[in-house]
């Protein structure tokens, strides 16, 4: 009698449901990195991993349709990609431990009640990696690279992640370290569609023109307007002030930002894949502490020179190859 023992993930099959808030950045690169890293770990799509994918176009109605279609299919793991998707799916199944949720690119999972904080084990059926660079880190970056910048224009869409970010700013700006900074806030309507960021950038034009003589810099908002190219291009077209971008592409694809401190989306996917591997192979969700993303910096020296800005050498070294010369 010969007894054959099977070890490793090859002897199992798994099912993964992916819910993207929108078919756009940052969700596509995070998802692509997650799946590439899972494949490297042996979880190949079409092999041992069956994947279903929905993109919600930031629409609540489509989220409900996706939930009603998929909720009885007993997925091994549901990956929720972005704040809109997380808000909707938490309303359907928060604390229903029939479902295991892994979130990525969510601005404020604490306010959504997905987690308590980033140092405690999860109490619900959600864990994952948040999206933003922490606010203090972003403000310190601005103060170090642009020490003369005191008045900051901040135009944001009326989205839940934007409101969370505004709340964080209001709380942090009263701290002694940041009291020299003066934010000028303006809000535009949240347009719910795949191309909504284009309309929101158009709505921001009047505020860019209004704020341009009042501010030293503009700061991209932490929302779907800020993460897409149209807003950065609009700032560059209408303003003579530098833009501090939200993502790597703001600089490296020359959308219009002079510099950016950004969440590393590729590394976020790697972080998420490590969590997904554990969840798929039996680790309980309460054992996996949620994480902040790793960060990077990028500079467009052509834009900096045009605006008379000198970037400190230590930050250019930190940026490595993330520099446009």
TrEMBL record:
Source superkingdom: Bacteria
Name of the featured protein: Putative ABC transport system substrate-binding protein
Gene source species: Spirochaeta isovalerica
């Amino acid at each position: 009698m010969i007894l054959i023992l099977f070890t490793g993930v090859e002897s199992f099959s798994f099912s993964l449901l992916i819910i993207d808030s929108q078919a756009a950045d940052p969700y596509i690169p995070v998802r692509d990195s997650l799946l590439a890293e899972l494949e490297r770990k042996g979880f190949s799509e079409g092999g041992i991993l069956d994947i279903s994918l929905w993109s919600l176009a930031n629409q609540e109605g489509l989220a409900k349709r996706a939930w009603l279609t998929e909720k009885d299919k007993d997925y091994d793991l549901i990956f929720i990609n972005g704040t809109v998707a997380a808000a909707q799916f938490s309303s359907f199944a928060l604390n229903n431990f029939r479902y295991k949720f892994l979130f990525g690119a969510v601005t404020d999972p604490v306010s959504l009640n997905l987690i308590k904080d980033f140092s405690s084990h999860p109490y619900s059926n959600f864990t994952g990696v948040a999206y933003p660079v922490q606010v203090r880190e972003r403000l310190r970056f601005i103060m170090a690279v642009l020490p003369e910048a005191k008045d900051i224009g901040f135009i944001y869409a009326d989205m839940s992640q934007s409101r969370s970010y505004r709340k964080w700013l209001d709380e942090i700006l009263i701290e002694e370290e940041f009291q020299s900074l003066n934010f000028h806030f303006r809000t535009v309507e949240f347009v719910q569609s795949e191309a909504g960021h284009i309309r929101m950038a158009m709505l921001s034009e009047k505020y860019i023109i209004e704020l341009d003589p009042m501010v030293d810099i503009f700061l991209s908002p932490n929302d779907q307007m800020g993460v897409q190219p149209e807003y950065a291009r609009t700032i560059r077209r209408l303003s003579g002030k530098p833009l501090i971008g939200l993502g790597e592409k703001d600089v490296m694809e020359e959308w219009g930002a002079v510099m950016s401190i950004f969440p590393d989306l590729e590394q976020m996917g790697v972080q998420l894949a490590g969590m997904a591997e554990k969840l798929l192979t039996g680790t309980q969700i309460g054992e996996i502490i949620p994480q902040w993303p790793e960060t990077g910096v990028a500079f467009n020296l052509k834009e900096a020179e045009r605006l008379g800005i000198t970037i400190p050498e230590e930050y250019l070294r930190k940026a490595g190859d993330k520099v446009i010369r």
